[in-house]
Specification:
Order of helices and strands of chain B: HHHHHH
Shape of chain A: globular
Structural class of chain A: mainly alpha
Number of domains of chain A: 1
Order of helices and strands of chain A: HHHHHHHEEHHHHHHHHHHHHHH
Radius of gyration of chain A: 22 Å
Strand content of chain A: under 5%
Strand content of chain B: under 5%
Strand order of the largest sheet of chain A: 1-2
Largest sheet of chain A: 2 strands, antiparallel
Largest interface: A-B, 61 and 70 residues
Shape of chain B: flat
Number of strands of chain A: 2
Number of helices of chain A: 21
Largest sheet of chain B: none
Helix content of chain B: 55-70%
Oligomer: heterodimer
Structural class of chain B: mainly alpha
């Protein structure tokens, strides 16, 4: 494994590939800094460019955009209290107060450092897990794939912030949208209202509509952020010894939590950062300090979301199952280059497989090194008021969607999904589960149908095959745990009432 | 105040999200009614859509019940009509012009219309901004990224 990793390093360190790793992480950090434009927009804009690159370079660049945006996302959170990416929402809670206390430099440094450690731990776990996971993945049949997707979809709706019922409903709506188009097995057209739908709804349209356009509609007319004042004092960026000592635990716990939720399909960086913050607050001896500029509350979610964005590549690279929408786009880029991701990838394309993994290692180092020196540039970018930014984002989204399939219908569809996403948000529905259902739904249908066909409709097969049984156990645990915590929450809600009445 | 929350006029608001979901589920069932379902061991293309539609309907009903009987419910935030209209118009303009007029005019018009969503934007600054944004877009999309879209239709 060390040997393969070194081979990967030798691939990345070739100048013509290194430049794409560099470009990827810089673009990633840039779009992470700018609120309202995310990795999905940037990756879909660059998808056509990857036609001209070889598969390894395009993968390295697109992946760099993804984890680079996790670094950049924290910058807007800390300086403006405005999350640059969904996974840095939690970073605002403690990062912004630290900056308000006049120690913005310190907050940025802690965020960058925790991100780096989290990212590196994530990469190490990816390196360690790659070979064993591939061996397990080679034994995956239809029942295992079906069960894993069920686990992922349930995890996406049960773990997280919003109402579980609403999240699950959104997963189902996502699956429904994924059904549109020709049926994979029989070619039968389902819900094809227009001939353009025959190939199915474009993932790019759905993602950019639900996340990009809906945000713009929500914010374009608001006038509360005119020329934000940002002061960064670069003199005290180094934490004191006591502060540094208090960060070790949170970073390690955050990285472990992040690595776990990243590797689980269905939960990603956003959920990981939320869970890391909640855990840290729960087990802290001083929970009252959280939310007022407590450094562990900044370090834990930042290390978690970066660890998660690295381990998210475990199911993507070994199983070919995308854990979230960005991963689905990256898999799409691989398929455009004629490479089918899955258990055979490591065996058939070792240079690509290990090169991409080694690029994460190099990319994290580049990100740490450029983060602090470039801070003035990011601050300058953040001074641009949103009113000067959103028209450009609209154009980027339009051109990105249009150039993806050269389709005008896709642009109109993106707008439709944008309005849908906007209405959903105002009625407390979250958009992320829709996207996941859309991406994983077809995989679920295909593998479930195949399982039922091969095993003659016998549901016991899910328990008889060892890997599938383990996945079933995880799913059952997840359901039981969420029922338990719902009951507990209800009791919690009732007790204060009882006390009041007395 | 609390009695008012449960009044008849509000019941529709409360049931709105579940109701829309129910319509989606029923719509899926009706449109997909004639899709061949097959058996469990030999599923047709209609099997999974019908199962998903039934599940959506079930969840929608549960949601309607819990939303109506539940204690308090967060009111949906007010719709930002101005930005909704201008952002939509801007994207539609791009969609319908890009094939006919090419990238530069469609981007220019889309930027202008989208900026109208901001109440305080002044005509001159809109014009200057749109010119700058269009040139930057031309540079990024056509010169750097070399996307296969004509700048102007006639010159392609």
């Amino acid at each position: 494994m060390i040997e393969q990793f070194l081979m990967g390093l030798s691939v990345v360190l070739q100048p013509e590939i290194l430049i794409y790793a560099f470009a990827g992480v810089i673009i990633g950090q840039l779009i992470g800094v700018l609120p309202g434009i995310g990795a999905i927009t940037a990756i879909s804009l660059l998808l056509p460019v990857t036609f001209y690159l070889d598969a390894t370079s395009s993968m390295i660049m697109l992946a760099g955009i993804y984890y680079g945006s996790q670094y950049g996302g924290s910058i807007a959170s800390i300086l403006l209290n405005l999350p640059g990416t969904p996974s840095s929402v939690v970073t605002c809670l403690d990062g912004y107060p630290v900056a308000q206390n006049g120690r913005a430099g310190l907050a940025l440094f802690v965020a960058a450092f925790s991100s780096f450690v989290g990212g590196m731990i994530g990469v190490s776990i990816l390196v360690l897990a790659a070979i064993p996971m591939t061996h397990i993945a080679l034994r995956f049949g239809a029942p295992e794939y079906a069960m894993l997707v069920v686990l992922g979809l349930l995890a996406a709706s049960l773990v997280g912030t919003g109402s579980q019922l609403r999240s699950f409903a959104m997963v189902l709506v996502g699956i429904a949208l994924g059904i549109v188009g020709a049926d994979a097995t029989t070619g039968f057209y389902r819900y094809v209202a227009m001939p353009e739908f025959a190939d199915g709804i474009s993932l790019v349209s759905l993602a950019m509509g639900l996340f990009g356009v809906s945000e713009i509609i929500n914010n374009a007319a608001k006038r509360d952020r005119t020329a934000p004042k940002i002061k960064v004092n670069m003199r005290d960026i180094i934490p004191t010894r006591a502060e540094a000592r208090s960060l070790g635990g949170p970073i390690l716990r955050g990285s472990s939590i992040g690595s776990f939720f990243g590797a689980l399909p269905g939960t990603g960086a956003a959920i990981a950062s939320f869970m890391a913050y909640a855990t840290e607050k729960r087990f802290s001896r001083t929970p009252e300090k959280f939310g007022k500029g407590h450094l562990p509350g900044l370090a834990a979610p930042e290390s978690a979301n970066n660890a998660a964005s690295q381990t998210g590549f475990i199911p993507t690279l070994t199983l070919g199952i995308p854990g979230d929408a960005v991963m689905a786009l990256i898999i799409g880029a691989l398929i455009l280059n004629g490479i089918i991701p899955g258990p055979r990838l490591m065996v058939d394309q070792p240079m690509l497989f290990w090169g991409v993994i080694a690029s994460f290692f190099v990319g994290n180092i580049i990100l740490l090194l450029i983060n602090i020196p470039l801070i003035r540039l990011w601050v300058l970018l953040l001074r641009i008021p949103y009113q000067k930014l959103y028209p450009v984002i609209i154009v980027m989204i339009c051109v990105g969607v249009y150039s993806h399939r050269t389709s005008v219908t896709d642009v109109v569809l993106t707008l439709a999904f944008g309005i849908l996403g906007y209405l959903m948000k105002s009625h407390r529905f979250e958009p992320a589960p829709v996207l996941l259902g859309f991406v994983l739904g077809p995989l679920l249908e295909d593998n479930f149908r195949r399982t039922m066909l091969i095993y003659r409709g016998d549901f016991m097969v899910f328990l008889e095959r060892p890997i599938s049984a383990v996945l079933f156990g995880c799913t059952a645990t997840l359901i039981l745990f969420s029922i338990y915590s719902t009951i507990k929450k209800h009791r919690h809600r009732e007790t204060p009432h009882a006390v009041k009445q007395r | 105040m609390q009695i008012r929350d449960h009044s008849q006029s509000n019941i529709f608001h409360r049931a709105a999200s579940g109701g829309v979901l129910l319509v989606i589920g029923l719509g899926m069932l009706v449109i997909g009614w004639n899709y061949p379902t097959g058996q469990l061991t030999q599923m047709g293309p209609g099997y999974v859509p019908r199962a998903i539609a039934v599940m959506i309907c079930a969840i929608a009903l549960v949601m309607i019940i819990t939303d109506i009987t539940g204690a308090t419910i967060a009111k949906p935030s007010k719709i930002q009509w101005r930005s909704l209209i201008f952002v939509s118009a801007s994207m539609l303009i791009f969609a319908f012009l890009v094939d006919v007029a090419g990238l530069v005019p469609s981007v220019f018009l889309a930027v202008i219309v989208s900026m109208l969503a901001d109440r305080e934007a002044k005509p001159l600054s809109i014009l200057i901004y749109a010119t700058l944004a269009t040139s930057a877009g031309w540079l990024l999309f056509l010169v750097v990224l070399e996307l296969p879209i004509p700048a102007f239709w006639r010159w392609s």
